[in-house]
Q: What sequence folds into this?
């Protein structure tokens, strides 16, 4: 079964279960006095102390966006791993949807690893679903006291272009109407030797980076979707990779001029802004 189907299964099990409660029955919200376990996300520390609750629609959607982005990045890098041994659980996230039993997400003190137990069994699914978090994902999930503020970066994510360094630290972003579309438009007619690939399994066994040294990653969301598109720029090579869950991935080659543009996030963000504003004026 192709990766997109597996991914949809995972998203349904992990994220959409919490979100659907908002879409289908907002009258059951905590603000309206419903049972505290109907839906939402509760965060507990290693001593089982409740340290944070996410209950608003924006918080749930933003939390889901963070996890979706981290899973996609890990899949591209073949960064799925085992549960760390001899290490402490730092925090546990419980995701509820009309049931006292929620989906659990564990964040560990060492290794920057996330782990979700009890994933539905299938031939292409791993026995243990654990993956390495990129730097900002781990920072946000390991600091629940400030998670609500940190998650605001994902509000209006469909109008935002994110730029991360090689470790996964956000270095630049732009939030503007049609920003992601402007980035994708800039890619058109700027690529040579474009080669399309399909994912054969849910979790690739080999990294898409093929030993290349990562310089920057750009992430955008497709309209009205949880799916991300990731664009990877590498050091000292005009080769680049673009990846998405349903469409697979492709490698291609920039011209020297375009490589200079895309390896400079600030200049690229300015170019995106100009293109997005021009597109808006012409509509």
A:
């Amino acid at each position: 079964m192709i990766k997109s189907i597996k991914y949809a299964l995972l998203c349904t099990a992990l994220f959409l279960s919490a979100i659907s409660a908002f879409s289908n029955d907002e009258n059951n919200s905590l603000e309206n006095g419903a049972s505290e376990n109907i839906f939402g996300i509760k965060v507990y520390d290693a001593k089982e102390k409740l340290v944070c609750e996410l209950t608003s629609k924006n918080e749930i959607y933003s939390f889901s966006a963070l996890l979706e982005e981290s899973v996609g990045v890990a899949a591209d890098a073949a960064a799925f791993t085992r549960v760390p041994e001899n290490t402490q659980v730092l925090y546990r996230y419980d995701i509820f949807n009309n049931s006292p039993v929620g989906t659990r997400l564990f964040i560990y003190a060492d290794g920057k690893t996330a782990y979700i137990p009890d994933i539905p069994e299938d031939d292409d699914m791993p026995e243990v679903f654990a993956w390495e978090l990129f730097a900002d994902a781990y920072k946000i999930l390991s600091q629940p006291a400030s998670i609500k503020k940190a998650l605001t970066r994902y509000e209006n994510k469909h109008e935002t272009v994110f730029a991360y360094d090689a470790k996964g630290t956000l270095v630049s972003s732009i939030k503007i109407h049609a920003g992601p579309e402007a980035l994708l438009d800039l890619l058109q007619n700027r690529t040579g030797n474009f080669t399309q690939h399909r994912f054969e399994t849910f979790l690739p066994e080999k990294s898409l980076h093929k030993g290349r040294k990562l310089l920057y990653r750009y992430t955008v969301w497709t309209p009205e979707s949880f799916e991300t598109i990731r664009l990877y720029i590498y050091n000292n090579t005009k080769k680049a990779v673009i990846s998405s869950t349903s469409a697979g991935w492709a490698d291609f080659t920039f011209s020297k001029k375009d490589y200079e543009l895309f390896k400079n996030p600030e200049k690229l963000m300015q170019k995106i802004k100009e293109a997005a504003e021009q597109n808006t004026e012409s509509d």
Summary: The chain has seven helices and 14 strands.
